[in-house]
Amino acid sequence: MNYQEYLSYDGLGLAELVAKKEIHASELLNIALERSNQVNPELNAIVIPMHDYALKRTETNLSGPFAGVPFLVKDLFQEYAGYPTSYGCTGFKRIGYIPDTNAEIVNRWEKSGIVTFGRTNTPEFGIKGITEPDAWGSCKNPWNLAHNSGGSSGGSASAVAGGIVPIAGAGDGGGSIRIPASYCGLFGLKPSRGRTPWGPQMSEAMHGAAIQHVLTKTVRDSAAMLDATHGEDHHSMFKIERPHTHYLEIIQQPPKKLKIAFNTKSPIGTKISKDAVQAINQTVKLLESLGHEVIEDHPAIDGMQLAKDFITTWFSQFSYMLEEIRRQYPSKSTDFELDSLVLSAFGAKTTAIEYIQNLNNWGIYVSQMNHFFDRYDLYLTPATASVAPRNGEVKTPAWQKPIMKALLGMGKAHLLAQGKLIDQIVKENLKWVPFTQLSNITGLPAMSVPLYWNEQNLPLGSQFIAPFAREDLLLQLAAQLEEAQPWFDRYKDIQI
Fold this sequence. Notes:
The protein is an alpha+beta fold and 496 residues long. The chain has a domain at 3-255 and 477-493: Amidase signature (AS) domain (Amidase signature (AS) enzymes). It contains 18 helices and 13 strands. The strands form 3 sheets. Strands 6-8-7-12-13-11-9-10 form an 8-stranded mixed sheet, with helices on both faces. Strands 1-3-2 form a 3-stranded mixed sheet. Helix 12 (303-328) packs across helix 13 (338-348), helix 12 crosses helix 14 and helix 12 crosses helix 16. The longest helix is centred in the middle third of the chain and has 26 residues, at 303-328. The chain is globular, with a radius of gyration of 21 Å. The protein starts with a helix and ends in a 12-residue tail after the last helix. The relative contact order is 0.14. Residues 27-475 form the Amidase domain. This is Amidase domain-containing protein.
């Protein structure tokens, strides 16, 4: 098999060749490694190699739907025992942190037969919608190397779109599957709260707002991997029932006629690009051509308040995590990025009453979305406010850094978030990605579907949100859209 042949198959397609003994897992791994050697110096997608592990694994008797398929995991909460993990952090990279247990999601991926040969680039602790950690540097977008791959699953997205692997591990706490899927032209599904496991390192993340899954080129790869990983483990706080039929079988049938609401206005009042509006307008026309009813509407939710509540949870949880890291491991201030330290300082000042009020608001948003879905089957928005930003475009202004350092030194960095400044901080953090947090807070499944490329050949995804536990409906529609407007062959046009 040459590389162009390799590129013509998705994960299930490659696994079928291995099952038929038309190719061996070691041959597929060699092709993936050759492609990685060719393009990763430019992409900076893979930051920690696991080649020895992968080579040994190809010599074992692999089974499962993805048996023999080259795979990569995100360098964040997808631990392999005995292999370095940095979480995108200079401090963990410096001390050479090595976990002693596998993450349960990794165990389930292993049971599907994949061959993992590396860990992918991610922003420090996954706290940004771009991948530019001080520890590893910027992860480039295969469609245009001047642009970023997005975050926090940016390395995985870059590796899949760049043709290194057909499928890679990802995670989503505020859009971290859908954002890089949008920027890199991939299919990215965020499952419902509790759909995939978090153990044994933790029982859940951000009250179930964060969830693990994959980034893929095809809908069926995503469906098959969800079949392989579904369900709680012994550490889980949330339990969700498996559908009566496997997702891979469900997508063989088109969805019924759907009533879909769509909206292109930012929920926090920030600017939305012409590309984002055009992407959704084109998607609306495609949906109508398939017989679906599409109506402009949006949930009765205060988008700015929801964003503030997301930020409150995000910063507070991160503050706790950073404090735990400092307690368990020898660290110094230079081990963490300035932005991380400031966000942690914000979060540390959240009172118990403020935090509980914030969580109570989450329940209100769930109720409002449930009422919304009494009238509609799905909700459509842009996945991101624009195509991928340029590398270095999304960063803390240089003039702010000395102020932030000075306030940190005095223990007063939290003062930056007082009064009207908190609105500015929320908008600055989320203006690129204002649409994704809704489904994390409410625990609803959502997906980014690659249906639009602009004149510069940069993609922008269409996001669909479904009622709780209705991944089946999302995947059915995605498969129908994929058949009506195929995107798989577009990856062959990428030149790196």
